[in-house]
């Protein structure tokens, strides 16, 4: 996609494997160093990622608990994680593992109990409503499991909505390109109710892409779709990473969906138990199969075990 | 199940507050209107019991056909019977069981001057002088000081009047009768059991009352009623009244055309006729009650829809553990019952309180009412029932939805698409079209001259008011029916501006409106009805003001207009005094001539006026369709207003037989009566002398001396007629409803007593300082107290201030309906927000700021309120213009649309929308984005 290569510095086909691989390695290394001196490391961590520019978002010592006193539920337990630029990272884990909470905290939808969250070097966890709105306009795109579209607006209007809300100029060529890629050229004038679930979700993808956010957070984007529609949506997400260097963080419990990702994180009981790079579908399946056997996460297949696992 | 319902009600109580307020307001209006009617009714009936307290009344037997008969001096009786001879009182007094009998003479239009020398003013209540003496007592009056007035130099005062005038027994003051002021001494002060609703009651000697009554009555020797007491101190029971009435009827001479009826019956009739006349007040209040309850049922429906939607999973759970649909239904409906009871309870108290407040307010303003203002059991029951029914109606559909919840409820965020509004659109449009057609027909009826717009006489004879009202009702209901179909086009039209200013939020808001068109239309309907009523009356009021101003600005050449507050008659002394004031070039006096018939029939809608020719040249320049009004008067012809000419098919040159009946003293009969009486007395004296009863003879002599000679004056009716040509037909609205003749002709036809000087116009000498002249004129009429001299501006403002007062009341009602409408909009938005929780969350997630969400909801609210207001303005203004056009000839010559007022309404609508959107928007924003979008 040479004619659009200009829009992100790292969006080239060649840079993909190399940069993602290195980012992942760094992330793993940083996580290890954090385990020993958690608080102090945060500062170092910050500067490292900034200089590097290979990290689009990261969490430092992120905890989230619900309830009070007797009934405390720990959703996230001192998590340190980085998300690489130009990568699709899948977060997996059983129900209640904290995978959604992690994503919500990363995206500024939820506030951490302690710890920090940064997106593009901006501390999300310390932002007020106005700053959060600003963040969502500039840096973040969302794809939800369902109800992604405003029912009163047509597909085209939905796609352009983020730009119009933030009163940004519309890049028509970019719009046309996205629309072509998601294959919705013929359906732009339709209302969401006139679109199939897969089409709706593709519109949501296009909308998330339209504002060229730093990172797209996708919350079970294929959760409500049949397998064909799921494939279409996931292919599109994968293409957007490959061709435009889009950074995507996706929460899913579907190993098939996770297999489209460059990196797969597995959460259990609020901690990251697995960090896999370019895992195959079988590898992912294996992790969950063994998990089901003995309730103990197996040894990582492609990467070092994150420090939290040993705590 | 009931326990679940009760617990739900408790946990939802906060959300019910708005519904409770709406129900309470509606019920308050209902209960208040019943209280108010009850209060007026008891006030009227107790006043009747006090003021018309005779045990038996003797009145005419035939209902008078001649409705032009002056009822000035007559009591408040609704039906007009033929007049009966005063002399019957003497006959009746001799009937067994009669304590006293007298013709009741009440004179209205008198003015009492207070301690400080100013006329005592009332809040529209009359000042009445009632004849009373020890021999002709007023039983309900109890003297607290002094005694009955004797002769023309004494008066007694009702306690309220005495307080108001700051007078006590022995004080001297002035009372202004029709013929001018008179110095009098206060002989006594009396009280009555009931308050007199602000009326100033003056007791005068019966002979004085009869004298002034006779001056205005068509026949001084007759009365409408003769009041009979059976007992001087205590009222008779109904049976005793009947007995007495029967006795009197037996004694009444044949041919007297009189009949005795019980006091109770007369009071009942009179009370009913007054109550009927006041009857319009309650429906007016009830209209606003209906608006409040309509919105109330609506708010309740919305609230329950929200509650039910949020509790759907709970209901599904109940169903899955075995609850029947009926049981689920009852958990919802029990909440509606509680809400209805609480709301109506508060409303009843509120309505009661409002009436109490009104009573206190009126008493402060000078109209004390002693009527029963507590709500009756039936009033409270009606209020309670209405509140409950409205609550149940509102909750019924949401409750049904709850009951039909499938045991496994898939939470479906996307609301089912609305049923098509096309059918409603068509029905509404047809109704509106019929309404407009009805108005077109009204217009045709009003403007058609002579034969009317259609070939059918029956159709042409329809009163214009009927199709006018019918059309208005059709339009209002049609617009409400049509409403949902109008939401989309109105949303697009009204949303055009906001969508261009606020591209995204404007568009989102506009589209959101079309999602639930019925709900939006119903919300707007509350404002629609209120605004329609007020803008209609606003147009009529503005037109009335403008028409008067226009007449005066363009037509009035005279410098001052003089009229009298005391029932319209200008005292001759005042007329003379004005004429003699220096700087006055000339005066023109208009005299109303009574009892004039044209071609043998009296014309109810016309007032016959005797006026000099100068009226048409120097006071109001006449515009005529034929002939010159000035020349016509000078030539002894009639000048007829266009509407009267049209009604009677008169044309210039037609000859009409004008006749007038005057009552004159029948010298011959009087002489005979006096001679007869003397003979009778002499016979009695001689008889007694013969019987050796010297004292008795002396007594008879003395009695004869004390007899009021007026009772022996016999009168006769004299009818004179002459053929007169119609000389001109005037079209100015200032002359509308009038038939004008020269003073000479009036004097030829009728007695001067039958002519009442109604108004007078003063033309100043050229170059005269008008301000100084005004001062001099005011000084000249000062002794007459009731005569006002108005310059052009004051003349204009006499109508304006009255119109403004009416408008003030209307605006108060509008304010109430606006408050209710705000509730409606708040509620509708709240429901809409709760339905769109996830959508708003999504918008927030993709970067919509809080301000933008607020903006979106504000735009929605403003469009709803502007939509309702515009519709109301449109139909209200249309109705106002129609009324103006139909009643053009009755003083609404000029159409004036109060644009500035209408613009204020629109601005107000925008403000209302903005205010209404605040709380729903806050509620929408309070919800964390996460809650809104998370799918778990």
TrEMBL record, chain A:
<feature type="region of interest" description="Disordered">
    <location>
        <begin position="1"/>
        <end position="35"/>
    </location>
</feature>
<feature type="domain" description="ABC transporter">
    <location>
        <begin position="57"/>
        <end position="294"/>
    </location>
</feature>
<protein>
    <submittedName>
        <fullName>ABC transporter ATP-binding protein</fullName>
    </submittedName>
</protein>
<dbReference type="GO" id="GO:0022857">
    <property type="term" value="F:transmembrane transporter activity"/>
</dbReference>
<dbReference type="GO" id="GO:0016887">
    <property type="term" value="F:ATP hydrolysis activity"/>
</dbReference>
<keyword id="KW-0067">ATP-binding</keyword>
<dbReference type="InterPro" id="IPR003593">
    <property type="entry name" value="AAA+_ATPase"/>
</dbReference>
<dbReference type="InterPro" id="IPR015854">
    <property type="entry name" value="ABC_transpr_LolD-like"/>
</dbReference>
<keyword id="KW-0813">Transport</keyword>
<dbReference type="InterPro" id="IPR027417">
    <property type="entry name" value="P-loop_NTPase"/>
</dbReference>
<dbReference type="Pfam" id="PF00005">
    <property type="entry name" value="ABC_tran"/>
</dbReference>
<feature type="compositionally biased region" description="Low complexity">
    <location>
        <begin position="297"/>
        <end position="311"/>
    </location>
</feature>
<dbReference type="GO" id="GO:0005524">
    <property type="term" value="F:ATP binding"/>
</dbReference>
<feature type="region of interest" description="Disordered">
    <location>
        <begin position="290"/>
        <end position="311"/>
    </location>
</feature>
<keyword id="KW-0547">Nucleotide-binding</keyword>
<feature type="compositionally biased region" description="Low complexity">
    <location>
        <begin position="7"/>
        <end position="31"/>
    </location>
</feature>
<dbReference type="InterPro" id="IPR003439">
    <property type="entry name" value="ABC_transporter-like_ATP-bd"/>
</dbReference>
<dbReference type="GO" id="GO:0005886">
    <property type="term" value="C:plasma membrane"/>
</dbReference>
<dbReference type="GO" id="GO:0098796">
    <property type="term" value="C:membrane protein complex"/>
</dbReference>
<dbReference type="InterPro" id="IPR017911">
    <property type="entry name" value="MacB-like_ATP-bd"/>
</dbReference>
Automatic annotation (TrEMBL), chain B:
<keyword id="KW-0812">Transmembrane</keyword>
<feature type="transmembrane region" description="Helical">
    <location>
        <begin position="375"/>
        <end position="400"/>
    </location>
</feature>
<dbReference type="InterPro" id="IPR050250">
    <property type="entry name" value="Macrolide_Exporter_MacB"/>
</dbReference>
<comment type="similarity">
    <text>Belongs to the ABC-4 integral membrane protein family.</text>
</comment>
<dbReference type="InterPro" id="IPR003838">
    <property type="entry name" value="ABC3_permease_C"/>
</dbReference>
<keyword id="KW-1133">Transmembrane helix</keyword>
<keyword id="KW-0472">Membrane</keyword>
<feature type="transmembrane region" description="Helical">
    <location>
        <begin position="520"/>
        <end position="542"/>
    </location>
</feature>
<dbReference type="Pfam" id="PF02687">
    <property type="entry name" value="FtsX"/>
</dbReference>
<feature type="transmembrane region" description="Helical">
    <location>
        <begin position="284"/>
        <end position="308"/>
    </location>
</feature>
<feature type="transmembrane region" description="Helical">
    <location>
        <begin position="899"/>
        <end position="918"/>
    </location>
</feature>
<dbReference type="GO" id="GO:0005886">
    <property type="term" value="C:plasma membrane"/>
</dbReference>
<protein>
    <submittedName>
        <fullName>ABC transporter permease</fullName>
    </submittedName>
</protein>
<feature type="transmembrane region" description="Helical">
    <location>
        <begin position="328"/>
        <end position="355"/>
    </location>
</feature>
<feature type="transmembrane region" description="Helical">
    <location>
        <begin position="421"/>
        <end position="442"/>
    </location>
</feature>
<feature type="domain" description="ABC3 transporter permease C-terminal">
    <location>
        <begin position="812"/>
        <end position="928"/>
    </location>
</feature>
<feature type="transmembrane region" description="Helical">
    <location>
        <begin position="855"/>
        <end position="879"/>
    </location>
</feature>
<feature type="domain" description="ABC3 transporter permease C-terminal">
    <location>
        <begin position="287"/>
        <end position="401"/>
    </location>
</feature>
<dbReference type="Pfam" id="PF12704">
    <property type="entry name" value="MacB_PCD"/>
</dbReference>
<dbReference type="InterPro" id="IPR025857">
    <property type="entry name" value="MacB_PCD"/>
</dbReference>
<feature type="transmembrane region" description="Helical">
    <location>
        <begin position="462"/>
        <end position="487"/>
    </location>
</feature>
<feature type="transmembrane region" description="Helical">
    <location>
        <begin position="806"/>
        <end position="834"/>
    </location>
</feature>
């Amino acid at each position: 996609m040479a004619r659009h290569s200009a829009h992100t510095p790292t969006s080239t086909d060649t840079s993909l494997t190399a940069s993602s691989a290195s980012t992942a390695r760094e992330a793993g290394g940083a996580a290890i160093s954090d385990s020993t001196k958690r608080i102090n490391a945060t500062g170092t961590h910050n500067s490292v990622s900034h200089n590097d520019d290979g990290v689009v978002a990261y969490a430092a010592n992120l905890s989230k608990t619900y309830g009070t006193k007797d009934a405390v539920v720990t959703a996230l337990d001192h998590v340190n994680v980085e998300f690489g630029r130009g990568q699709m990272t899948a977060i997996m884990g059983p129900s209640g593992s904290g995978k959604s909470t992690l994503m919500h905290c990363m995206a500024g939808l939820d506030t951490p109990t302690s710890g920090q969250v940064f997106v593009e070097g901006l501390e999300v966890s310390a932002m007020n409503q106005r700053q959060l709105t600003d963040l969502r306009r500039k840096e973040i795109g969302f794809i939800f499991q369902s109800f992604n579209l405003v029912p009163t607006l047509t597909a085209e209007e939905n796609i352009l909505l983020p730009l119009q809300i933030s009163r940004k100029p519309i890049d028509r060529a970019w719009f046309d390109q996205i629309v072509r890629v998601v294959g919705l050229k013929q359906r732009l004038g339709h209302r969401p109710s006139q679109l199939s679930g897969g089409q709706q979700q593709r519109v949501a993808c296009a909308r998330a892409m339209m504002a060229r956010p730093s990172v797209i957070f996708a919350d079970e984007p294929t959760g409500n779709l049949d397998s064909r529609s799921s494939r279409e949506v996931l292919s599109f997400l994968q293409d957007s990473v490959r061709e435009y260097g889009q950074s995507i963080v996706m929460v899913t419990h579907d190993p098939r969906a996770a297999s489209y990702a460059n990196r797969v994180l597995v959460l259990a009981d609020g901690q990251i138990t697995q960090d896999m790079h370019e895992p195959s579908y079988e590898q992912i399946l294996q992790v969950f199969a063994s998990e089901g056997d003995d309730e103990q996460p197996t040894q990582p297949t492609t990467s070092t075990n994150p420090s939290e696992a040993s705590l | 199940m009931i326990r679940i319902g009760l617990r739900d009600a408790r946990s939802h109580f906060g959300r019910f507050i708005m519904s409770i307020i709406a129900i309470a307001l509606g019920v308050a209006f209902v209960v208040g209107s019943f209280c108010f009617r009850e209060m007026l009714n008891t006030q009227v009936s107790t006043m009747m019991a006090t003021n018309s307290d005779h045990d038996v009344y003797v009145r005419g037997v035939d209902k008078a056909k001649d409705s032009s008969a002056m009822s000035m001096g007559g009591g408040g009786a609704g039906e007009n019977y033929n007049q009966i001879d005063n002399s019957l009182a003497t006959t009746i007094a001799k009937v067994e069981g009669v304590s006293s009998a007298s013709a009741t003479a009440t004179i209205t239009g008198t003015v009492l001057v207070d301690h400080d020398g100013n006329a005592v003013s009332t809040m529209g209540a009359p000042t009445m002088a009632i004849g009373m003496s020890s021999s002709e007592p007023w039983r309900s009056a109890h003297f607290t000081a002094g005694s009955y007035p004797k002769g023309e130099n004494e008066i007694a005062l009702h306690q309220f009047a005495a307080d108001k005038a700051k007078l006590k027994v022995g004080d001297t003051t002035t009372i202004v009768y029709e013929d001018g002021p008179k110095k009098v001494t206060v002989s006594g002060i009396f009280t009555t059991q009931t308050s007199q609703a602000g009326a100033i009651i003056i007791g005068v000697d019966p002979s004085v009352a009869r004298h002034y009554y006779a001056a205005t009555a068509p026949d001084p020797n007759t009365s409408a009623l003769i009041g009979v007491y059976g007992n001087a101190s205590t009222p008779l029971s109904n049976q005793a009244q009947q007995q007495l009435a029967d006795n009197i009827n037996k004694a009444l001479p044949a041919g007297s055309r009189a009949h005795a009826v019980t006091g109770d019956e007369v009071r009942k009739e009179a009370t009913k006729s007054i109550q009927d006349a006041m009857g319009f007040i309650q429906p007016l209040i009830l209209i606003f009650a209906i608006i409040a309850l309509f919105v109330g049922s609506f708010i309740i429906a919305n609230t329950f829809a929200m509650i039910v939607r949020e509790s759907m999973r709970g209901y599904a759970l109940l169903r899955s553990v075995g609850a029947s649909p009926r049981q689920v239904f009852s958990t919802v409906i029990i909440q509606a019952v509680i809400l209805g009871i609480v709301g109506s309870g508060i409303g009843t108290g509120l309505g009661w309180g409002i009436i109490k407040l009104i009573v206190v307010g009126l008493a402060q303003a000078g109209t004390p009412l002693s009527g029963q203002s507590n709500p009756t059991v039936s009033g409270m029951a009606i209020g309670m029932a209405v509140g409950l029914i409205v609550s149940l109606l509102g909750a019924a559909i949401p409750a049904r939805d709850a009951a039909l919840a499938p045991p496994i409820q898939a939470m479906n965020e996307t609301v089912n698409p609305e049923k098509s509004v096309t059918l409603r659109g068509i029905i509404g449009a047809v109704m509106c079209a019929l309404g407009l057609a009805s108005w077109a027909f009204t217009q045709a009826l009003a403007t058609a001259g002579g034969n009317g717009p259609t070939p059918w006489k029956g159709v042409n004879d329809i009163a214009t008011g009927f199709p006018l009202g019918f059309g208005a009702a059709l339009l209002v209901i049609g617009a409400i029916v049509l409403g949902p179909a109008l939401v989309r086009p109105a949303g697009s039209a009204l949303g055009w501006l906001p969508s261009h200013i606020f591209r995204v939020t404007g568009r989102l808001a506009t589209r959101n409106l079309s999602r639930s068109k019925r709900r939006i239309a119903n919300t707007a309907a509350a404002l629609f009805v209120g605004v329609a009523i007020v803008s209609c009356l606003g147009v009529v009021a503005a037109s009335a003001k403008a028409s008067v101003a226009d007449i005066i600005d363009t037509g009035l050449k005279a410098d001052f207009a003089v009229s009298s507050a005391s029932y319209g008659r200008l005292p001759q002394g005042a007329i003379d005094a004005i004429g003699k004031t220096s700087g006055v070039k000339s005066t023109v006096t208009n005299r109303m001539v009574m009892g004039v018939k044209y071609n043998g029939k009296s014309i109810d809608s016309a007032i016959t006026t005797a006026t000099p020719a100068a009226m048409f040249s120097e006071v109001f320049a006449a515009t005529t369709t034929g002939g010159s009004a000035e020349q016509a008067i000078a030539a002894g012809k009639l000048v007829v207003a266009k509407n009267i000419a049209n009604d009677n098919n008169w044309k210039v040159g037609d000859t009409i037989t004008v006749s007038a009946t005057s009552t004159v003293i029948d010298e011959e009969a009087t002489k005979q009566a006096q001679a007869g009486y003397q003979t009778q007395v002499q016979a009695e004296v001689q008889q007694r002398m013969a019987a050796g009863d010297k004292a008795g003879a002396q007594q008879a002599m003395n009695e004869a001396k004390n007899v009021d000679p007026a009772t022996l004056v016999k009168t006769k009716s004299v009818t004179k007629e002459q053929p007169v040509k119609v000389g001109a037909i005037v079209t100015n609205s200032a002359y509308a409803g009038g038939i004008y003749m020269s003073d000479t002709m009036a004097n030829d036809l009728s007695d001067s007593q039958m002519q009442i000087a109604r108004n007078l116009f003063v033309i100043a000498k050229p170059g005269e300082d008008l301000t100084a002249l005004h001062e001099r004129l005011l000084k000249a009429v000062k002794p007459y107290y009731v005569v006002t001299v108005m310059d052009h501006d004051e003349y204009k403002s006499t109508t304006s201030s009255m119109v403004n007062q009416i408008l003030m009341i209307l605006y108060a009602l509008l304010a109430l309906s606006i408050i209710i409408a705000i509730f409606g909009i708040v509620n509708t938005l709240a429901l809409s927000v709760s339905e769109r929780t996830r959508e708003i969350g999504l918008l927030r997630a993709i970067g919509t700021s809080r301000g933008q969400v607020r903006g979106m909801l504000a735009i929605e609210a403003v469009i709803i309120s502007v939509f309702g207001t515009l519709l109301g303005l449109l139909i209200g203004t249309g109705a106002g213009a129609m009324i103006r056009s139909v009643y053009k000839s009755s003083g609404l010559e000029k159409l004036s649309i109060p644009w500035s007022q209408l613009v204020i309404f629109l601005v107000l609508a925008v403000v209302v929308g903005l205010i209404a959107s605040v709380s729903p928007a806050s509620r929408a924003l309070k919800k964390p984005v996460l809650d809104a979008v998370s799918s778990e």
